[in-house]
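Hi team,

Below is the intake form for SF3 helicase domain-containing protein from Methanococcoides seepicolus. Please confirm the fields before the structure is written into the shared record.

FORM ID: S-0412
PROTEIN: SF3 helicase domain-containing protein
ORGANISM: Methanococcoides seepicolus
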Amino acid sequence: MIKFNVDAIPNELKKLSQWVVWRSEVKDGRQTKIPYDAKMGNKASSTTPQTWCSFDEAAKKFTENGHYDGVGFVFSDSDSFCGIDWDDVRDPQTGEFDQEILAEIKSLNSYAELSPSGKGAHAIIRGTVPGKRNRKGCREIYDKDRYFTMTGVPINGSPEAINAPSSESLQAIYDKIDVQTQVKEEMGFDHTEPDCLKYGDEELIQICRHSFKSQKFRKLFDGATDDYGDDDSAADLALCDILAKHTRDFDQIDRIFKRSGLFREKWDRPDYKQRTIRKALENIGNKEQALGKSKYLSNNGKLLVQKISESIMNSCHFITFRDTGEIYQYAEGIYKPNGEQLIAYLVQSELGDHSRRHHIDEVINYIKIATYVDRDSVNNDINRINVLNGIYNIQDDVLEPHAPDIICLVQIPVIYSPNADCPEITKFLGEVMLPEDIPVLEEWAGYMLTTETSFQKSVMLYGDGANGKSTLLELITTFVGENNISGESLHRLENDNYSVANLYGKLVNVFPDLANTTIYQNSIFKSITGGDRLRGEKKYKDVFYFNNTAKLMFSANQLPAVPNGGHAYFRRWILISFPNKFEGTKEDRSLIGKLTTPEELSGFFNIAVSGLRRLRKNNQFSYSRSTEEVKREYIIKSDPVAAFADEWLIYSEEPTPKMVMYGHFSKWCKEHDVATISEGMFGKRMKKLGYADKRQSTGDRLRCWENVTIKGESVHDGEVNMDEDNRDQ
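The structure came back. Fields below:
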């Protein structure tokens, strides 16, 4: 349970008399947080202000009474606040967040704190719930009639004040709660509303590319006017007509038109632009009024399911996973999720006011059945790499065009250019890595681009801070693409049932700065790297099984200890040292920008492909260390005390003074380039390893380690400094 911190609660909330205390009780067979009136001791209600009190009254009752588990803030119509809550998104032991949720929290730029259990989080913002729905999956949002249990333990990086987030960031989170259900459930929304669906520009362009008039839109968007007798003005109006069917937002139509091939200087004439867009908006309104009923409805109003479904599938390509029923849509060379949302939009757009929820459900079910695929048929060609300008065939060394019959969920955000070079990346690698490790990194970079996992390796970058590890991982993330990367730690993969599912469809799992906490299990790690079939489980969704394609890549200042690591564990590691430090004048704060230009990334792609060819030809990485050498290095960097003891300590009838032992350990650390820990920490670790200490009963009464000495050393060699501090250690 997170300890309540009274000082960190925002003053904006403290000023309001909208507080309760709460207690965890069993209700209907499960633990529930029940609110109580701090003044009267009766149960409180989030809809009854008489049961609320001031912050000071609630805090005092909680701290002095001892019968309550915390305090809570009630949201009301009378305030300007809104709360967003996320459940089960943080590991309370390691402090690791679900990275998607953490990004959502940061995007709000407002006060956010941990939940009492430490497993969840909530943010308080200025604003209101954007729609009617309040909860889906792990997310909840309320601006009235609910209370939040408050801890006053802020999330690192969140502001102290309560702010109003940008409308875009709030809407992006709410879309995951609403998932366009208002479109599905209410069905009769007014098409004349300018912000009726609130799609972003890029989303709207993709919808138009896959709508019933997709071919017409594509030609116009590319700048073709031949269908209009090369009449530029007629083509302008035709493009605006299509856009107006999907948005009534004047400014959005203007922005998208400016991205088209039809855009020219004339468009920026205010009279011409306004006249054209207004005419398009009038046209669409007149058409909807004149048509009355869609051609996909029979005379008695029944939906012609097959007709509209086949029409949608003629203009769009879908796949549906047989095990979970998830629909993916083809766009820009790959299949993307949220196919159901596109289908719902297209049906709603076509049927207008005649659309009903069951219409959309019928079309979705029809398309699902018609597009079923097995999960194993996806991303299974290890010789083809999907890039922005086509599909690179590594076997034939040719760039092939994108095609919907090549079922691929991943695309590398790089343009293939066979003659491209990357001088900045080459220079960077030479500065931060040992020369013998650079070929290994090149091979790994190529290995990451494919769905291949047969080499059963993972990479660990290690070394002290400010040495280039994080920059390299940032480069890798940009190179492979954020959409193709998961971010699970070793600890989370072993202990969180849901984390493995996040690897599905990814090329790499990247996690920087692993915590130096012991990992007691490594079976999941071995399954992931060993090519085993994995079980995926997502909250509130069906379980599925998949062949993993994600390679594992981590960084750490000190490696996490793995007491149960054996040969099968250590043989899977490639350890790459980063020996140099870049601080002060040596630090280049603009470096990542130089490394990730389109030209540099295209050049790095060529290096990666060469590395992949070398890897396949040699059938192994250019990594010279044996498993035993890897094991020894790993143990040294993860548990230096154990490594020191294993290498240097032997049984002895005589005890060894603690200060002598620690002196040898400090010397050993310097020889192995390992950060020295304090003498107290050294002693604690020695005891955990089974070594016992005692104070000598005679003489100077030094504190010693019993029955152990250092190889080739006599504990009586030399003179021991007998000051008062040493006697008491």
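SUMMARY LINE: Residues 639-728 form a domain with the Arc Repressor Mutant, subunit A fold (CATH 1.10.10.10).

Thanks, M.
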